[in-house]
Amino acid sequence: MKHLILVGACYLDTILTVPHFPEEDSKLRATAIQVRRGGNCPNTLEVLQQLLLKDLNSDVKVRPHLVSCLPDIGSAATQRILSSFGTDDEESIVDFSHCLYRQGHNEAASSYIIRSRETGSRTIVNYNGLPEMTVNEFASIVETLVTPQQQGEEYWWHFEGRIPETALQCIHHLRRTLPESKISVEVEKPNRDGLVELAAEADVVFYSRSWAESRGYAGPDACLKGEAALKASLVLCTWGEQGACARWLSSGDEECIHCPANPSGREITVVDTIGAGDTFIAGMLYGLICHIEDWTREAKLSFAVGLATRKVQRDGFAGLA
Ligand code: FRU
């Protein structure tokens, strides 16, 4: 059995669709409002779950887990979050037993998102009042997740990289206690201190366009070449409508592979870019964990880009597999 553990925050997203991005201190009427569960790791898991359910008969058995701080287990917010992963007739295959349910907290972390029809942009303002996970809490999770019977199983840990200092210590803990683990990190938020150090410790690094631009890179390949002083064997960078680049650093052949978002050139209608990067990560993790040998590097990258391209053409994450 392979275990894929995603460590990151969960949000309830309130999405306002507007004809164009508003001016500061103006009033603008939205054309739609929608509330749905969000958060980078939960979004990635929602997509991964679909891919894994489709593969139930495959030889590769993967158990996905979420490690996230959530409100009190009895709160309506947490019930809503957990039920957002199930489908009408099936329970979720995601293990939520290692989430940290914060007693006495009834409100989920919230994002308010302005989604502009004119440009397809999504502008996110969020608030998270839940106490953050500590390194000791993480260490106990590792202990309960990896029981003696489960020694010898494979573990892939993916960190959102929200609180880089904590994530870094968690990675050090894993390197000491489970040295065979694979570790990936997402480096998304521009100018957040500690993300360079975090990337330096991971096996796989996912860079966002906004991070790369904040470091002065003009494109994804420049980012992957510029940020290459790492232990990582693979680095990736997404670039919106231009697709993504990947660079495998372990093979001597370290050229960037580029995959365009829309190779056919046919016009696509952008409906919802919220979570496109999270969907790309789902597609890539799926390729890296479930199709190690039977998919080429190009196939893994183009699967992830294709999945993210399908995602932006629909609202939410349903029906992607
Ligand atoms: C999209 C998203 C939203 C969430 C926000 C958190 O990538 O995960 O669902 O509100 O980003 O930063």
Automatic annotation (TrEMBL):
InterPro entries reported for this sequence: Carboh/pur_kinase_PfkB_CS (IPR002173), Ketohexokinase-related (IPR052562), KHK (IPR034093), PfkB_dom (IPR011611), Ribokinase-like (IPR029056)
Matches recorded under CDD domains: Ketohexokinase
Natural source organism: Diplogelasinospora grovesii
Record's keyword terms, sorted: Kinase, Transferase
Organism ancestry: Eukaryota, Fungi, Dikarya, Ascomycota, Pezizomycotina
GO terms assigned for molecular function: ketohexokinase activity
Pfam families in the record: PfkB
Name this protein carries in UniProt: Ketohexokinase
PROSITE patterns: PFKB_KINASES_2
Domain Carbohydrate kinase PfkB, residue spans: 1-316
